[in-house]
Amino acid sequence: MPTKTSLKTKTIIKSKKAKSLFSAGHRACAGCGQAIAARTVVNALGANTIIANATGCLEVTTTPYPESAWGVPWIHSLFENAAAIASGIYAGLKQKKQDKKIKVVAQGGDGGTFDIGFGLISGMWERNENILYVCYDNEAYSNTGMQASGATPWGSSTTTTPAGSGKTIDAIGSHQQKKDIIAIALAHNLKYVAQTTAGYLEDIEAKVKKAVETEGPAYIQILAPCVPGWHIRSDQTMSLGRLAAQTGLYPLLEYIDGKLAKVMKVPAKKIKVEEYLKPQRRFAHLFKNERGKEVIEYIQALADKNIEKYGL
User: What's the rounded Cα separation, in Å, for the pair 89 and 75?
Assistant: First the structure.
């Protein structure tokens, strides 16, 4: 005689059958913040999606010929032209009257977004095309050896801005300001602009779904801790993603129609930036001398400025 299956059991069976659109077995590092974020993004987008992907770690690790980790149509051309490829796909879908059924997404790392691909991204935004652009920001050209990019934060040691042992400004690593792509996106009058981190997967999912519901161009920037580039353990990805936001250095933000609509408040008990910086060997030199202490104070001031600016 057949027995009744409980609702709880049915839910478990259904969850086991649910298939991710970003499959396991890819070649990303264990604990890769970019891979964790990308899986969340594509699963939130759903199957009716076409992705154009810039050159970078995400492309190299997920699509070695003839394999692919992606369960949706996915295209890679050159480092700089993911946005142009997405524009072409969108034009084709419009011609076939399928642009309302299929979401077009362009994505890349900070090198392909902040630097090499920025001109084509700007053009896509100027044309007001209904395309979501997602930037996985690990704050350097990690795929090619951790060179500094336009997203590299002040004081970070990279292979092109190495920290020395002296007391001059050159001893601190990068002494450039991180490019504010959020402000640049807003200057293009995008209807939806958001910032989040790989430490908050539910926030990524919610923002992707909201971006897809928005008619017109949208931009989401996700801090994606890099295990070898940041010199961290694979089990520190999520905690550092959360600390980046909780210190105010990388706040969780959402803009709708150019207006700040939502922020995640920092804890009432202030978390100093040192707690975020210290686990990362790219900042290890800052904890060795007085010059480093001055730089940490400057980075703290940047976080405090964000807290004041966004009402965190």
Answer: 10
Q: How far is CA 163 from the centre of its chain?
A: 25
Q: Is the pLDDT of residue 11 over 60?
A: no
For residue 51, give Cα distances in angstroms to 46, 72, 123, 170, 222.
Answer: 11, 7, 18, 40, 17
**Which candidate, 276, 291, 293, 302, places its Cα nearest to that of 176?**
302
pLDDT digits (tens, 9 = 90+) for 40-94: 999 999 999 999 999 999 999 999 999 999 999 999 999 999 999 999 999 999 9
Per the listing, tokens 């594509």 go with: 42
Beta carbons of 107 and 54 less than 8 angstroms apart = yes
Give the predicted TM-score (pTM) of the model: 0.92
Instruction: Give the alpha-carbon dihedral of 243, 70, 105, 27, to 10 degrees.
Output: 40
Q: Is residue 142 classed exposed, middle or buried when 0-12, 13-18 and 19+ CB atoms within 10 A define those classes?
A: buried
CB 201 within 8 A of CB 114: no
pLDDT in tens, 85-112: 999 999 999 999 999 999 999 999 999 9
In the chain, the amino acid numbered 129 is E
What b-and-e string marks burial along 99-133, b requiring 16 or more CB atoms within 10 Å of the CB? beebbbbbbbbbbbbbbbbbebbeebbeeebbbbb
CATH of domain 27-310: 3.40.50.970
